[in-house]
Specification:
Layout (H helix, E strand, L loop, with lengths): L10 E4 L6 H9 L3 E6 L2 H6 L1 H6 L4 E5 L11 E7 L4 H5 L24 H7 L2 H10 L6 H12 L7 H12 L11 H11 L2 H15 E11 L2 H15 L20 E2 L10 H6 L7 E7 L15 H10 L1
Helix pairs in contact: 6-7, 6-9, 6-13, 7-8, 10-11
The structure holds S-adenosylmethionine (SAM).
Length: about 325
């Protein structure tokens, strides 16, 4: 909330409504309007009570933040990336291996699911996916185990996949996380095109913000955090002038953001104790200048092989 520097009469975008914690807090702290989005139909249904009670100060739209297009300039855009506690805790969504469920993971409840990826991608594509989007060094071993297991019949359940991964890499003694955590992360990112969405969402926010407006992004893993960091750093152009090879070259673009704090902000001990899911959160924010928005950010293609095969399935 401090990063957004809320002001009376302001208009704020909550790009990831989820359970509505951010929207509610903005409305409670400032006499402002909130325009919220979520791609998950369940989140939209859950938010209807707030729509009713907010006296026209709150609107909620089902859609992807990558498609964000507004007919007014706004004072702040906030992203709280990833999955919500509701999505994690509702077993039937298949995001978590804490309970057995269909291997689904589709935020929109539409299109091909994580089970389609696990059963349909080649071994090489699965390894590529788990290595690049899961950042798991055991990716080849896991991919091989998945392909061997599915020869006996399709992999359809969360606990089935978690067990296959666990047997493939062995329980890691003393590890804080389950051995399947990274495989699940990679699948979720592929199924929901999370890095593509983030690239499009950041550029959309850049276009939507007024001069002086604020972009605030909370991310939960290093791939996303790196993208946010690089997006803001490039546009805040900390170096100032051309390149080291052409120091007198005119600056290609005027900075579209200024940075008040270069480093990410992490939750304190008290917050992590009260809310363990905040453990890996990283907040970055920046202030929009009056310069034109830069060209759209290109989504990084990290797991090219997996993404190419996935597009055919989709
Ligand atoms: C971490 S939760 C947000 C929690 C929220 N800040 C709260 O206070 O409850 C992330 C939410 O963003 C949604 N989401 C993820 N990617 C999205 C996208 N590309 N477009 C719109 N919503 C998205 C998810 O469906 C999920 O509900």
């Amino acid at each position: 909330m401090e990063a957004l520097a809320l002001k009376s009469g302001g208009v704020y975008v909550d790009a990831t409504f989820g359970g509505g914690g951010y929207s509610r807090e903005i409305l409670a702290r400032a006499d402002s309007r909130v325009i919220a989005f979520d791609r998950d139909p369940d989140a939209i249904a859950r938010g209807q009570a707030l729509v009713q009670s907010a006296n026209g100060k709150f609107t909620l739209h089902q859609g992807r933040f990558g498609d964000l297009a507004l007919d007014e300039a706004v004072d702040g855009v906030v992203f709280d990336l990833g999955v919500s506690s509701f999505q994690l805790d509702e077993a039937d969504r298949g995001f978590s291996f804490q309970a057995d469920a269909d291997l689904d993971m589709r935020m929109e409840r539409e299109g091909p699911s994580a089970a389609d990826a696990v059963n349909g991608l080649s071994e090489a594509a699965l390894a590529d996916l788990i290595y690049h989007l899961g950042e798991d060094d055991e990716s080849r071993r896991i991919a091989r185990a998945i392909v061997q297991a599915r020869a006996a019949g399709p992999i359809t359940r969360t606990l089935q996949l978690a067990g296959i991964v666990e047997r493939a890499v062995g329980g890691r003694k003393g590890a804080r996380t389950h051995p399947a955590t990274k495989t699940f992360q990679a699948l979720r990112m592929l199924v929901n095109d999370e890095l593509g969405e983030l690239a499009r969402g950041l550029s959309a926010a850049e276009r939507a913000l007024k001069p002086g407006g604020r972009l605030a992004v909370v991310s939960f893993h290093s791939l996303e955090d790196r993208m946010v960091k690089q997006f803001i750093a490039a546009r805040a152009d900390a170096q100032g002038r051309g390149s080291r090879h052409m120091p007198d070259a005119p600056r290609a673009r005027e900075p579209s953001f200024t940075l008040e704090r270069k480093r990410a902000t992490a939750p304190g001990d008290a917050e992590t104790a009260a809310n363990p899911r905040a453990r890996s959160a990283s907040l970055r924010w920046a202030v929009r200048t009056d310069a034109p928005a830069w060209d759209d950010l290109e989504a990084p293609v990290l797991a090219a092989r997996a993404e190419a095969e996935w597009r055919k399935l989709a």
